[in-house]
Amino acid sequence: MLNDEASVIPKDCGQCPIRHRAVCARCEVDELERLDQIKYYRSFQAGQTVIWAGDRMDFVGSVVTGIATLTQTMEDGRTQMVGLLLPSDFVGRPGRATAAYNVVATSDVMMCCFRKKPFEDMMAATPHIAQRLLEMTLDELDAAREWMLVLGRKTAREKIASLLAIIGRRNATLSMQGQTGTMVFDLPLTREAMADYLGLTLETVSRQISALKRDGIIVLEGKRHVTVPDFDRLMEEAGDDSDGGLLT
Amino acid sequence: MLNDEASVIPKDCGQCPIRHRAVCARCEVDELERLDQIKYYRSFQAGQTVIWAGDRMDFVGSVVTGIATLTQTMEDGRTQMVGLLLPSDFVGRPGRATAAYNVVATSDVMMCCFRKKPFEDMMAATPHIAQRLLEMTLDELDAAREWMLVLGRKTAREKIASLLAIIGRRNATLSMQGQTGTMVFDLPLTREAMADYLGLTLETVSRQISALKRDGIIVLEGKRHVTVPDFDRLMEEAGDDSDGGLLT
DNA sequence: ACTGATCCTTGATTCAGATCAAAATGAAAA
DNA sequence: TTTTCATTTTGATCTGAATCAAGGATCAGT
Asked: Residue A141 and residue B143: Cα distance in Å, rounded?
């Protein structure tokens, strides 16, 4: 996958693609300048581990480009994804010394990082940052709770439909498309990663995707490129009210 | 259940049982006085609904005594608990007009409430409140992610053991007991509520509790009073590392 | 003590998804 | 092109938890 966007470093925060969605979204120009001075970029190749659960973590940061996952693992190897990190999402927790989860780059990833201590100082001095972080954390909590319903109560088919709906909806939001009618996007996850997200096995994921294809809910070109002819139909399959309930 | 604590109203914030854990925990005396002026108490009987998902919500607040649940429901009635609200936990979200989840009092509950607008104003003027709310929200997010592993990857027996461990651990924290050896507590939830928490049916919950009893992992007196002779043993059944990983 | 209501337990059977197994696809390397 | 390797699909079988069904325990009200 030829992807050189991960190697392009924004000239300054004003040019940054996540300027208006990340933890810095509410910052004024002068605040941004101060952040600018303490930030640094790190990039990770697809498949690379950003940090292991339990390891000392002396930075926090935002995903600028690419996709990463947060996962939890049991001793016997069972793993559950607990977060999907997209551009603008925040990694790490101010006031905590070690990583709570494994963070793995799913595609090539570039992150905008801050050493923890300077960031914490900056946060104390800059209410705009703390405000935005609170807002983002509350959104993540809502997403996690939505996901608890999916994990606890939905069938395999509904789980797959829910995941497709979430990916599709996010894609539509980013590219300013409507959320009805036809929708086209690429799956950013392998079948195994989808299984880890949904609490299923990869075989079940594959079978349910095939079933949705057979039933005309989705059209597949290759293994990753998805067309949803009728988004409302997909939502029904996901078991959600047509009204949605999620934020856009 | 004779429980008149729910009817006892603290004289002032200084006497409040959740003074040092709630959203007001970091407030100085003068900040507390201002909160004191805009707060009011509401009590709810066991079983009563505090608010329905989707309803207009013009207050936020803290649970002072008792236990409440946050639940999500699908049209066909499947329900998933997404939060267990204990004393000091915060209800509602600043900057949101409607409730995202059903909130139901599981026992008699007393809440310390604030009308949303004055609270938001106070938050903007009082960093200590926003700071504490961020910290509490991050903790809740961690708890939600822990729960995603339980829902997605654990067996029915492990789920029950995990829930017992969480309730037991919290109890030990509140009453300053150790987290090893024998532990005694009451289940604050019906079998059905446990099932909704764990993504199981109430029959499976009942069977697994019976199995843990049969195997000597727990001792039951009546249906709600639990003795855990060996907490480490329970943790093993929960499939968790002995080191725990959760915050105390 | 009886009635009703709620909550809980246990048994029999079914079924959705896991597990075990093999083959197909497709991209990268040689 | 052929080989390799990761990824995905599909089939056969098994199993853990759901579902269906029946009673038991506990408590409040009469």
From this structure: 10
